[in-house]
What does this fold into?
Amino acid sequence: MMTYSSRLISDPVVRQNPVTVQILGVCSALAVTRTLIPAIIMSITLTLILVMSNVIVSALRHQLPHSVRLILEMLIIATGVTIADEFLKAYVPDIAATLSVFVGLIITNCIVLGRAEAFAMNNPVIPSAMDALGQGLGYSLILVLVASIRELFGTGRLLDYQIFELVSDNGWFSPLLIMSLPASAFFIVAGLIWLSRGKSIQPLQAQWQFESHVYRGKI
Amino acid sequence: MDTIPSILFRSIFVDNLALSFLLGMCTFLAISRRLENAIGLGIAVIGVQTLSVPLNYIVFNLFLAPGAWRWLGLDIVDLSYLKFIVFIGVIASFVQVLEIVLERYFVNLHRSLGVYLPLLTVNCAILGGSLFMVQRDYNFNESVAWGFGSGVGWALAIILFAALRERVRYSDAPRAMQGLGMTFLLCGFLSLAFTSLRGMAG
It folds into this structure.
């Protein structure tokens, strides 16, 4: 049991990473990564919502009528997102403003619905919670990596500490403009995919199988 | 940012939902492998976005906005925190109704779009369009323009992208980059191209 649950957490971090391997939840993963702090807040928010929705869906899995389960799952997720959004607005209003609509868009994040549908509907509460935690960590890893690269090379700073001395302050580093553009997120994710695939080339089919499973569930 | 034409131009090219806000990426990557499918999905997005944003505008201002219940003497009621649940419900039921209507009256159109319509319920571009409409305080006409423009922008992006992607399939990329890696790289270049239109927005 211990090894099973620890694998549930460790697998999605690199080997089965939701973003680079399963291609789920890419939208928000790319959009909030210009600087590091919003990315970290977004990761924490998504992980908490993921754990909450997985636990609730798993606890109710024998009660949810099969034909309307998707709408009910969406309702559970939307409730969690509403709570998170109000919480962020109350305690970290600046960051909530930076994240703007992207907290709300967690509702349509494919990781959350995908895990509720593919894992929590068929598994007990504790493994579901572990699975959610693992998927959340995998997502967070990508978000934090991309955001660190973009902030470091886009501004020379990391978490408000000056790492590279800027030319304007008599240093050597001139910020790369491209890092502040959305396009750079694509390039960095492409690089990460190259890295993660290069080590263990998996059958390219596997990535789409999961997704099409989720889509089939919706139709 | 004021006039309708400028909202249209911005929503299609500058604030392109797919390429500058990176919304709807899951569907964008999954359904862009063939051009015909991308065109079908693009048309579905234009239709759903043009109608669902104004619909959500009406629902938001009638029931959720601060002061919407003033006529009942409930001045302080502010239900705008419910917008996520309500919007997703409106979109889901609207897509369902649209599907039933298409199935009954436009059989051919339904046959070609049928598969993609249910997907749009969970497309972040659709929900994002409505959330941006609230955040930017558009009035009714502006929200129609924004809905239509952002739908067209998304469709334009996915059609261009699918056409490019059909070519790239035969390229000789390193093994680890084949498929997904090239897709992301291509998306990046397309997004870069759209960024250069930013200077044209007045």
Summary: The CA atoms of residues 32 and 162 of chain B lie 5 Å apart. Chain B has nine helices and no strands. Chain B touches chain A through 47 residues (CB under 8 Å). The radius of gyration of chain B is 18 Å.
